[in-house]
Every structure is written in C-alpha cells, then in structure tokens.
Design a protein that fits this description.
Elements (H helix, E strand, L loop, with lengths): L1 E7 L5 H16 L3 E7 L9 E4 L13 H8 L5 E4 L1 H9 L3 E17 L12 E13 L2 H6 E7 L4 E6 L4 E4 L7 H14 L1
Parallel strand pairs: 1-2, 1-3, 3-4, 4-9
Antiparallel strand pairs: 5-6, 5-7, 7-8, 8-9
Length: 192
C-alpha cells in the first residue's frame, strides 16, 4: 500500500486545523493508501506522495524552513503544496512571497491557463475556498523550473506546476472546497 505523507505546518491549533485535511482525505483514500501525518521537521520513511498543509505562518516574513523542504524534495516523488505549502514551494524555487493587496477569505473564481494532470476533468473556470494574506510573485528564475497553470480574476497566481517533476502548488484550500477540492486530491493521488 502506498504511503501518503501529510506534513502539518500549522503552528497554532495544529490538531484542529489538520483534522479537516485528514477527514477529507480519508473519504477519498478509503483504505487504498496509508495516510501518515507528520509535523514540520519530522523525518518521513518510504513516502510515495507528500502533501504540504496550509499554516498561519508567513513565508514572506521568513517563517519557512528551506532545509526541511530540500529534504522533502530529495525523495523526488509527487508533492502537492496547499496555501502556505504552495507559497513555501514557490519560495524554495526562487519565487517571491509578498503581502497580498487584500486579504483573501472565502470562495474565489479561478481560471485555468495551462493544462495539467492536477486539474484533470476540471472546468475552465471554477471556484475554490481561500484564506491567505500573502501571494506568490514569480521571478525569471522561478519560471525556469515552473509554469503557472491557474490564476484568479485579478491575475494572481492560483496554481503552479514544476516542468520536470511532479511538484504542484495551489493557493486555495481543496479541503474546504467540497466536490472540486475532492477531485483535485483524487487527481493528485490517482493520476500522478
């Protein structure tokens, strides 16, 4: 059975916050995968896929452990970063993370701008739940390794994909987004 590691980056109410991910993922997994929860900094063994959770921490303020990310990426397996996890991935690969022009809270419209297996069977436009104060700004160096696959109505980056590896980042929270959130997790677990 494959091991799916969910890395918990929350610093406050860790168990309460990660429970939403666990409950949502367990509905999808239905005994097909081992879901293993680890807190940031903990060692993982024999991973097949890694999911990086959201967090209250601020990547733009330096609240990110780039050495731990290097360790996780060393497994060279599919990785999905959610909100903070997305921002951490982008920071690691030389993108910038800055304070957003506004707080993003609630459902937002998202538009696909490039094809990706993570969005298999998605409509061109859809809505996902968001809760964040920071946003990713791409750099030339970041775009050497990644492509932007989705943006919001304001042009903000909503999803990225590595060009050579199965590393994905999504700014939104699929665990809070019902059916399409479930489909995104299914695509990550089944097709990648």
């Amino acid at each position: 059975m494959k091991n799916i590691f969910l890395i918990n980056f929350y610093k406050e109410k860790r168990d309460e916050k990660i429970k939403k991910y666990i409950d949502f993922l367990n509905e999808i997994i239905e005994g097909k995968f081992n879901l293993i929860i680890k807190n940031e900094g903990e060692e993982i063994k024999e991973p097949n896929k890694i999911i990086l959770s959201g967090s209250q921490k601020m990547v733009g303020d330096g609240e990110v452990d780039l050495n731990y990310l290097k360790y996780l990426f060393s497994f060279k397996i599919p990785v999905l970063g959610i909100c903070y996890g997305h921002q951490a991935i982008c920071k690691y690969f030389k993108g910038e993370v800055l304070k957003a022009k506004r707080e993003h809270k609630g459902f937002e419209s998202i538009r696909l701008i490039d094809k990706s297996k993570i969005f298999k069977n998605f409509p061109q436009k859809f809505q996902m739940y968001e809760s964040h104060f920071e946003e990713v700004i791409v750099t030339e160096e970041f775009l050497k390794d990644f492509k932007i696959i989705a943006r919001n109505e304001e042009g903000g980056i909503e999803a990225v994909e590595a060009k050579e590896f199965s590393i994905f980042g999504v700014q939104f929270h699929p665990e809070e987004s019902k059916d399409l959130g479930k489909k995104l997790f299914e695509n990550f677990l089944i097709y990648l």
